[in-house]
Amino acid sequence: MSLRTEEAYVGWVRRFIRAHDRRHPRTLGARVVEAFLTLLATRDRVSASTQNQALSALLFLYREVLAVDLPWLDNVVRAKRPQRLPTVLSQDEARRLLAAMDGRSWLIASLLLRYRHAPDGRGQRAYAMR
Asked: Which residue in 95, 129, 87, 93 sits closest to 112, CA to CA?
């Protein structure tokens, strides 16, 4: 694994151990791991990718370092992934945006704009940024 991954995993293991009064992870079971990951999502409001990284670090610790198989962690409250909504421009807005640009910025913006066949909320065709 890469050095950056190793550093991140060590950070999560330290945080986990400190959260449990510096007790050895071998004395802590799957329920404690589930509770820790759930707190990350609910109390600390970390992103889903951050919670997944913490989960991966703890699974690596238990499986590879301690040779302990944790039962599948079904009771973890998962962090919510952000809903990504595309920015949609009307044809007129897209034309005005491109008219305000020139050169390289115009070329890049014109390539990023793509024609959408679906009508927008007003029954008009729209452009959407990829």
From this structure: 129
pLDDT, tens only, 83-130 = 776 677 788 888 888 899 999 988 888 887 765 444 555 545 555 554
Cα angle value 24/28/31 (rounded, 5°): 155
Q: Where are the alpha helices (DSSP H) in 61-90?
A: none
Round to whole Å and give the CA distance between 104 and 63: 51
Alpha helices in the chain (DSSP H): 3-19, 30-42, 48-60, 91-99, 103-112
Instruction: Give me the pLDDT at residue 23, please.
Output: 92
Q: Can you name the residues that pair with 129 across neighbouring β-strands?
A: 113
Does the model's pTM come out above 0.85? no
Rounded Cα–Cα distance for residues 110 and 104 (Å):
10
Q: Which residues pair with residue 119 across a beta bridge? A: 125
* DSSP assignment letter at 22: T
